[in-house]
Design brief:
Elements lengths: L2 E3 L1 H9 L5 H8 L6 E4 H13 L3 H17 L4 E2 L3 H16 L6 H13 L2 E3 L3 H5 L4 E3 L7
Length: 142
């Protein structure tokens, strides 16, 4: 199975002083070549770095982002035509149902749908209704 890691999973693993053991165990149980990021996740992390006021924390987060870019080089999924089409389907479906979703979440889900991947996220409530397959690493057994 190929996993598209949501921003909350990446943040848990890379920036928490004591990451949740269930998340770490789940992460370690997956094969490195089967873990991908969306360009949206990278952008969200970069926005978090930019928004950090404390210079020490900002430097730490910038180092974590650089490490993420190195680790996932070649496994950062772009938004292409298939992903854009999946995004439009998600947007129309949820709008017709009277439910909204943040565009970054919809784009991450669309990337997973377009590629047949599973989104690893803590945000099951919003992403599951997109039709994407989802898994919550925080609910996995250690």
């Amino acid at each position: 199975m190929i996993y598209l890691l949501d921003t909350n999973v990446v943040a848990e693993i890379t920036t928490r002083s004591k990451p949740d053991q269930r998340v770490l165990a789940w992460f370690r149980s997956t094969a490195r070549p089967n873990r991908f990021l969306s360009v949206i996740t990278v952008a969200e992390i970069e926005a978090g770095v930019d928004a950090t006021v404390d210079p020490v924390r900002k430097a730490d987060y910038a180092q974590a982002l650089a490490a993420v870019r190195r680790e996932y080089a070649g496994r950062i999924a772009p938004i292409g035509e298939r992903e854009a089409a999946a995004y439009l389907t998600i947007h129309k479906t949820l709008k017709a149902a009277g439910a909204g979703i943040d565009p970054p979440d919809a784009l991450i889900a669309a990337t997973a749908l377009a590629n047949g991947w599973t989104v690893a996220t803590r945000n099951i409530k919003h992403l599951a209704r997109t039709g994407a397959m989802v898994i919550n690493p925080w609910e996995q057994q250690v």
